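User: My instructor asked us to take a sequence, write out its structure as tokens, and then describe one feature of it. I'm not sure where to start. Here is the sequence I was given:
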Amino acid sequence: MRQLFIIVFAFVLGGCNSAKDICGMYHLISDDPALQRITLEIYGTRFSGQGPCNRYFGSITHSDTGSNSIQVEPLASTKIACPHLSAEHRYFQDLQRVSMFKVVPDGLVLKASDQKKKVFTYH
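Assistant: Let's start with the prediction itself. The structure tokens for your sequence are:
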């Protein structure tokens, strides 16, 4: 059991050790009650999280230029209905338009080419 834990721990850390790393668990900052439960977990080039209704997951491609440019690949989610599906749909669309990231002292800022920002705190 201990060996399995060490292997899993090394695997998780192995994906999060370069200058481009944004690995971690985050919580979206929002005044909208429908969006206050959103989480985002990034590990290497993969991400997952909890939307207002559904769990979601996908992958990120980092730019080779050394900048903070990223591309969020099409994401997938579970399909549970709830009163906040329209807010979730907007969040998923905004997330897929993200093109830049910035690590800040208390979390992460994701920015799209249309200048929309999503601000997350460490969870």
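For the description part of your assignment, you could build on this observation: The first helix runs from residue 2 to 14. Try explaining in your own words what that tells you about the chain.
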